[in-house]
Write the structure tokens for this entry.
Amino acid sequence: MYRTHNCGALRMADIGKEVTLSGWVQKSRDKGFMMWIDLRDRYGITQLIFTEEKTPPALFEMARSLGREYVVTVKGTVIERSSKNDKIPTGAIELEVLNMEILNISKTPPFTIEDETDGGDDLRMTYRYLDLRRNPVQQSIIFRSKLAMATRKYLSDTGFIEVETPVLIKSTPEGARDFVVPSRMNKGQFYALPQSPQTFKQLLMVAGLDKYFQIVKCFRDEDLRADRQPEFTQIDCEMAFVTQEEILNTFEGLTKHLFKETLGVSLADFPRMTYDDAVRLYGSDKPDLRFDMPFVELNELAQGRGFPVFDNSELVVGICVKGEAENNSNKDIKKLTEWMQRPQIGAKGLVYVKYGQDGSIKSSVGKFYSEEDLKAWGDKMGAEKGDIVYVLSGETDKTRKQLSELRLEMGRRLGLMKAGDFKPLWVVDFPLLEWDEESERFHAMHHPFTSPKQSEIPNMLNGDHETMKNLKADAYDLVINGSEIGGGSIRIHDRALQSKNFKLLGFTPEEAEEQFGFLLGAFEYGAPPHGGIAFGFDRLCAVLNGQASIRDFIAFPKNNQGRDMMIDAPSIISGEQLEELGIDLALKEEV
Amino acid sequence: MYRTHNCGALRMADIGKEVTLSGWVQKSRDKGFMMWIDLRDRYGITQLIFTEEKTPPALFEMARSLGREYVVTVKGTVIERSSKNDKIPTGAIELEVLNMEILNISKTPPFTIEDETDGGDDLRMTYRYLDLRRNPVQQSIIFRSKLAMATRKYLSDTGFIEVETPVLIKSTPEGARDFVVPSRMNKGQFYALPQSPQTFKQLLMVAGLDKYFQIVKCFRDEDLRADRQPEFTQIDCEMAFVTQEEILNTFEGLTKHLFKETLGVSLADFPRMTYDDAVRLYGSDKPDLRFDMPFVELNELAQGRGFPVFDNSELVVGICVKGEAENNSNKDIKKLTEWMQRPQIGAKGLVYVKYGQDGSIKSSVGKFYSEEDLKAWGDKMGAEKGDIVYVLSGETDKTRKQLSELRLEMGRRLGLMKAGDFKPLWVVDFPLLEWDEESERFHAMHHPFTSPKQSEIPNMLNGDHETMKNLKADAYDLVINGSEIGGGSIRIHDRALQSKNFKLLGFTPEEAEEQFGFLLGAFEYGAPPHGGIAFGFDRLCAVLNGQASIRDFIAFPKNNQGRDMMIDAPSIISGEQLEELGIDLALKEEV
């Protein structure tokens, strides 16, 4: 037996007991006549003590020989510490070691195994098994486990059944790129890894399973932006015989439960906002509502006064930043303007109006507008003495996106996005389709299985092109603090409507049949009305912990090139394997 | 709102209530002036009633128009049934329908949606969404969900952390064949899908996670035998600082808990048997102990008496079948002998000795052995009056396998393998290595990471070839009713020992480094002693339900050619996809 207790267990009440512990050498302090070692495991740290007086010389020597991260098992007596450490739960005691065995030695780790490490990202990923020994990373992984358990318990307790859907499925070119798997038994054919279990969960509803969930790995072969992973995890859910209202209530309940269970935070009822309002008021379909600072449109007040930039703009829109008039010098504003003009944001310029504490009004467009004009802007925007207003103009969509960036930057600079403050929001009434000017075709705003609102069905079946652009769907996102953590919709359950949607999305009837014939077929055998939602589980972990990156909530993440640095995957495979699979490499020489 | 109650909810106490139900039309009975419809959902069946007297004619007409599997929502009043059905929980009431809407129609299903269906396997798999509507299949899927939840709860409550390991990993030719995934971002390179998370769970132990579990999909590209799936699910577990004893106790605890939770069955402590004993006594490393009927070796008593077949055999071994002497005519025994001689078993012949109720002894080898000889056999085998003894002989391994088949067949014929009777068994002390005469190399009996017993380590590091053949490992299987439902081992945590094992298994040092360098490297940074186990989750579901096949416990299984008949996968992918992935098809024309 390697231990009677773990390294976080011993307390004053254990004094006098003879115990066995096992763990890693975190650090040692050698005073010559006395020596202490911090022994670490997942559960905590216990201090070991060796003294010239009591420790046999050979044992003392062995203790001195231990390096960082050596693995030992020790037997000893629990004694009271003379100087207690109230920062750790075991800080009142220490272990007077009687016996020790070195279970394994360790080379010096390539970075320090401390809360703050000196290791860079690549090094940490290559030695992820050492990075995972660090308390913050280990706690993130443990948090994830708890969150998954709490999710499963809540959903099981409310009648949901967890069903495993297959990982080896069929490639469908719609949406993102699939990872594919060549089939040896069916040469020339491929499985695909699921981007989500969407069609399977719908089939489970057709099958009468009624309430389904699964915490499930999904796969997308996309060019990886920062903080995207080729494999990621979803809480995937579907219900039959439900309206949007019931789905929102069910998963608002889940979300509240998870916050309560894992953080002890009680969330109030979630507000709802239409997609159109979110975009109009915050320039984003995932507004961070930890602070308000809504957009105010100024077209009426700012156009037709002879300022050509505004006059020629589709939209003139601003935000009011409270109490910041005096804190921003012309130099500061110049720098901010340059920040807005970077290619990532692409604003042409930035107009400001300062409403001074002394009643003065100063603006970069002062020569085009009277003080009365600027006062009217301020009134519309709710600006008071001491506030500053920033205004952008241009093409509507672009301008909103730029102003959204500015709004978030103001939130960051003013500390308005507080850790521990959670502002959930349902964004509802998404458009069904999105017209892509470039490819001259519709894309599904959510996915091809999303239903238009009941009232829109006749429009969808018979409407013209303009009507299609304006169709609204029973589609919704759950947004927390500016992160989309979930999204879903009521689905189509009628073959004719689904076929129409495929047609709008540019599928020929043959392509629709080839790729989704099984689903269209299923709709002919009594498919019930149904809908669902999927949560990004990695993102949910991060948001609950106020972290920007999902990386530390994934035990073995891949880097931005899709590589696992630790195991060095992907890698080449043997010619024999390729032959068995019936494929050749078609590599062109890079020049 | 589609329903106020589900179809399994209403009772006498609800009489008089106005309720809304939704579901599928299971069947209807039309008496002309009166009509009943069984409305079905996941939760049960509720009877709807329509009467000439009370139902508006248009509604009655609509009811008559409904076909099997139509989806409807009905509003009505709960009334007491005149003739109650005590076979279903809602059998005391029926719903007098006031209002009905047809939510979806259905074509006539290709097979009956009943407990016993008329659909063949292929048809059921093609329309799996209809097959899943059948109660036994739906209950199997729900059982699986419950079993997973009970597993997770038990392991979480005992300090295990569920960690998701990656699905896109590295191909390693050892073991079964990998499914591989071409990487678009790293052309010419491939990920592999995990055959198990073995190395990752070991790295989690190196990382100090201490107690890990995961219910996880695994993948093997094998030629599918009956009841094998290319993707299957494991309960995968690992612990650090543990001995084999602690692992066996922990997972015996889990297994007992699962039986209690899902079946209400209390299992007694599991017996243990060494691999050598299991093979010697039952000819199998997974004996079905619902009945005993052990092997008895007769070499001493049967050789040297002038019967050349036995004299030239490595092993003479038999079983005693109680009370079956009088039930087997010579014709029966001839048929049984032919059954044993089929190529699947391959016995050369079958010797019997009947110990008659009248004290007579009859045997097919009576002319070679005296009655005294045969009596001595009987004594050794515990044969009493009325019993029959079957004896096989030949090369030891083959003979044991043949006799094991005979033993199981006797168990089946005599009804000794009772449903609801569960006989778990730990088989321990597996050999570390298995010598393959054909390829003249060692194979790992469990896997290449399994540790020899502590006492065997010096033998392994320094022993000769014969010593290697006899090394015993800390490896164990959990067997229930003749099915292996779990297996595991204490792992190697020392680089030198692991390297030695790779060498024995035929890896060059370069190959070992190329494929498992990350693990060997991890062993140099304070790897703790560790070990674990994995349960076949699909098989566990089947064994708990006394089912031979795992198929109905998988929502969307693949057939024996690895095809998903419903979605028709695998399938061809576009030339564009192939090009992006940097691969070509290398298909040869079949002649």
Observations:
- The domain at 291-413 of chain B is CATH 3.30.1360.30 (Gyrase A; domain 2).
- Chain B touches chain A through 127 residues (CB under 8 Å).
- Chain B has four domains: 12-104, 138-193+214-265+536-578, 291-413, 424-534.
- Chain B has 18 helices and 23 strands.
